[in-house]
Design brief:
This protein is of the alpha+beta class. It is built from 9 helices and 14 strands. The protein has helices at residues 172-187, 198-215, 229-245, 252-258, 263-272, 278-296, 303-309, 315-326, 330-335; strands at 5-6, 20-28, 44-49, 55-63, 70-76, 79-85, 88-96, 98-103, 106-111, 115-118, 121-128, 135-143, 148-149, 162-165. The protein has a 7-stranded antiparallel beta sheet. A 5-stranded antiparallel beta sheet has the order 3-6-11-8-9. A two-stranded antiparallel sheet has the order 1-13. Helix 4 (252-258) packs across helix 5 (263-272). The longest helix has 19 residues, at 278-296. The protein is globular. The N and C termini lie far apart (49 Å).
Length: 337
């Protein structure tokens, strides 16, 4: 049975009212330069920017006044980082692009619109942009000493334990929307959250979203991923096929045939390697490409035209899913062009 959690802010935490915000960017024609290390959100064991004509890493950081939790808005031309984070629970939410996380024998991949809860662990993360756009994500790092469980063990988590948070959780969308609002407001020269007591008020609301979010993360339904190399190769081959054919009308049977297995074996492999179905992954890939096309296409094109070009056939379900993930309608994204 899932343990009840007692939510208690430490009495020793600072009692400031303003959110501390900073933003920095590193550009280099020589990706081996290490000036960008000052931007990293954790002390790395290993770090490297993906070689490019101009390597770029930018990180905006907001430190919440009461708890000391940190909110990071990350943009990268692509990088790999290996780090051991034993002091925080982190939530990663890609906005553009994809990432792969390895922790012990576990491995999982996320695309834009999905989210991942990373418990204290040593892990290796690789990120990449999409369609020429840089990788972009929001990361929320919560200090392990902020909350305690009933038995006093911070988060009740084992080393290398982590779980993907399903997109269907009713609490995931509101948390994502609120985090994006926070980073958007703080980046504005007319920010409201760095004035008076607004920062502390915003943080109190954030904890309510966060508490609801974790309540939906049931570890009995989202086990630690322990998959064999052969299953991972099968899943990656299927994902590669889906990325190459996302705009086509393809079924699970088509995907299974392309990688030389049965539909049932394919379903089992995906379940073993991340608790996501092939259909869910295909939908996420299509949604990532719709988002990119809406942000870069001629505004005279219709949302329906772009969505159908990316493989969506039911416009009502597509529009609802898009709004749940990105916090705006497809037409609102298109009009930003």
């Amino acid at each position: 049975m899932r343990k009840n959690v007692v939510w208690r802010l430490s009495d020793a935490l600072p009692k400031e009212t303003g959110i501390r915000y900073s933003a920095a960017e590193w550009r280099s024609a020589h990706p081996r330069d290490d000036g960008y290390r000052q931007l990293l959100v954790s002390d790395p064991i290993d770090f490297a920017l993906v070689p490019d004509i101009v390597a770029k890493l930018s990180v905006a950081t907001a430190i919440l006044p009461v708890s000391g939790a940190r909110l990071h808005h990350i943009t990268s031309s692509g990088h790999m980082i290996e780090a051991e984070d034993t002091t925080s629970l982190s939530i990663m939410m890609p906005i553009v692009g994809a990432l792969k996380v390895e922790a012990g024998n576990a491995e999982i991949r996320l695309v834009a619109g999905e989210s991942l809860t990373l418990r204290p662990s040593r892990r290796r993360t690789q990120v990449a942009g999409s369609g020429g756009a840089p990788f972009e994500a929001i990361m929320f790092k919560v200090p392990a000493n902020v909350f305690e469980t009933m038995d006093g063990q911070a988060f009740g988590c084992r080393r290398n334990d982590f779980a993907a948070v399903e997109n269907t959780s009713k609490a995931t969308g509101p948390l994502r929307d609120f985090l994006r609002y926070l980073v958007g407001d703080l980046a504005s020269p007319d920010s409201l959250l760095n004035k008076g007591s607004a920062g502390a008020t915003a943080e109190a609301l954030l904890w309510e979203h966060f508490r609801a979010f974790l309540a939906k993360t049931d570890s009995t339904k989202q086990p630690v991923v322990q998959s064999s190399p052969s299953l991972m190769r099968l899943v990656w081959a299927a994902i590669d096929f889906m990325r190459a054919h996302y705009a086509d009308t393809i079924t699970v049977s088509d995907i299974a045939a392309a990688v030389g297995t049965s539909p049932r074996n394919l379903q089992d492999a995906f379940r073993s390697c991340g608790n996501r179905t092939p259909v869910a992954v295909l939908s996420a890939i299509r949604m990532e490409n719709v988002r990119l096309d809406l942000m870069t296409s001629d505004p005279s094109l219709s949302v329906t035209h772009i969505a159908m070009d990316c493989g969506f056939t039911h416009m009502g379900r597509f529009a609802k899913a898009y709004r749940d993930i990105y916090g705006e309608t497809p037409s609102q994204t298109l009009r930003k062009r």
